[in-house]
Amino acid sequence: MTRRVENYKLVFVGDSRSGKTCLLKKLLTGTFCCNHAPTDGVDVHTYETQDGERLVRFTVWDTGGASDFTGMRDGYYLNGDLFAFFCSRDDTQSVSNLSQWTRDVRRVVGDLCPSRCVVVLNKKDLGDTQASALFASLRIKLPVLHLSVLEPHNDVALFSHFVHRTRRLSSGQ
Ligand SMILES: Nc1nc2c(ncn2[C@@H]2O[C@H](COP(=O)(O)OP(=O)(O)O)[C@@H](O)[C@H]2O)c(=O)[nH]1
Ligand SMILES: [Mg+2]
To answer: Which of 12, 17, 25, 151 is the best mutation target for the ligand 1 pocket, counting ligand atoms within 8 Å of the beta carbon and taking the most?
Structure first.
């Protein structure tokens, strides 16, 4: 059925403890693991999914979120096709840092195209919080997903979003 394979480098960016690694592990293993060490540097994993005649292969760069915005990360962002910016409902700082993360990536890859980026507000299971109120007050110009890694299919939802978006990219629209 596969007629063509498409490869995308997808970079997970955002503050530490916003759920980047949990989401990826849930997707790859099917289980939510609540206790693991902070990501050191970057972990790279592959996830493939069939979309009609396309086999969409994501190489996911799950970056550590240690709070420096120095040029150390440039190599992770370089040649990134897609970016997911994470923040979470239990951490106001992770929301206020969003603009800095987007600026950091923009400095390396140029303007952020809304088809290639998404902002994830994670931990929807926690309901309304100070961080979600702050998030609601922001004027975010990129698509937004409200997710909880604890809830079924939310990990897949992020990738479905990009599968859908890359349909347009691959047809040149
Ligand atoms: N309540 C809740 N906790 C979450 C969720 N996703 C991740 N966590 C917790 O957030 C913490 C940090 O997750 P982790 O994936 O290591 O964050 P990372 O530093 O962004 O990779 C862990 O203790 C997880 O158990 C979620 O959707 N809901
Ligand atoms: Mg991590």
So the answer is: 17
